Amino acid sequence: MLTGGGDCPGLNAVIRAVARRSFTRGHEVVGIREGWRGLVDGKFEALGPREISGLLPRGGTILGTSRTNPFKLEGGTEAVLANFQRAEFDALVAIGGEDTLGVAAKLHAENDFPVVGVPKTIDNDLSGTDYTFGFDTAVWICTEAIDRLHTTAESHNRVMVVEVMGRHTGWIAVMSGIAGGADVIMIPEQPVSIDDACEEIRKRHERGKDFSIVVVSEGYELEGLNEASDLDEFGHVRLSERGVGARLASEIEERTGYETRVTVLGHVQRGGSPTPRDRVLATRFGLKAADLVNDRSFGRMAALHGDAVVDVSLEEATAELKTVPADWYDVARAFFG
Ligand code: F6P
Predict the structure, then answer these.
(1) Which of 30, 47, 137, 238 has the highest CB neighbour number within 10 Å of its CB?
(2) Which domains occur in the chain, in start order?
């Protein structure tokens, strides 16, 4: 098993579930350290009942993680295949988002690599599954922050801009914004102009509501953002560096004259204990992954369709991002202003 990409609450619950089900079948379970890097470098550790005990409430990943892309390293793929064979592994469970699972899909397609996937990400942007675990916890954390910002915004008659993660999709912004009662939500998929956002805020203030909460996704496009520095091995810029929340706050203050502050929630959104919903989803995904391995159904990924855990092709699941559809945004928009 390996965990790759950004960590998220629920990874340890998957590890526990995969291991528990595999033990009952007499399989041995090995953890690979720090994502694909561990397979490139041959860094493994045996997982027994003691190692996987007490994991349900624990955030992060006991295996460590990285954003290593073996396809971008000289000899990386060869090292992965050689180390896997040398260790006499039979199957790999890759737990990750579009990048980690994209590598898994490619290894399977090109080398018939015996891998199954488990979808994780706070961003919920993976197609093939209705929800990824980690997302519910992130939304819960952001909603709590929005609730707290309401009381201080109201006391000071301020506009509060809250910048949330989500990369190029606005799932976290939309869901936490709906749950927290945001007055404007700005996401990459359904761009509302700054003028329109300011108009909504003005309307509120004219109605006697002297404070507003604006939730903005880190991936929202705005003129005048900072240049993000280096790309990671999967070609992503660090969106948080662009400062969209700060930029938006100063634009709102300038255009409306209302005092405005910004809160960037950052990695707090990924830390700590998973919600019960994420623990349960991660557990169900873990059991499904162990079953897929047992059936030798490689190239598949555990997925949630409605309330059922099913399996889908890894290739399809990583082919495109799952963006926020217009009807979800309409739910949020009904409460703007
Ligand atoms: O994909 C999860 C995520 O938290 C994104 O929402 C965010 O853009 C990115 O990872 C941050 O990455 P890092 O942990 O490398 O700063």
Answers:
(1) 137
(2) 2-134+274-317 (3.40.50.450), 138-270 (3.40.50.460)
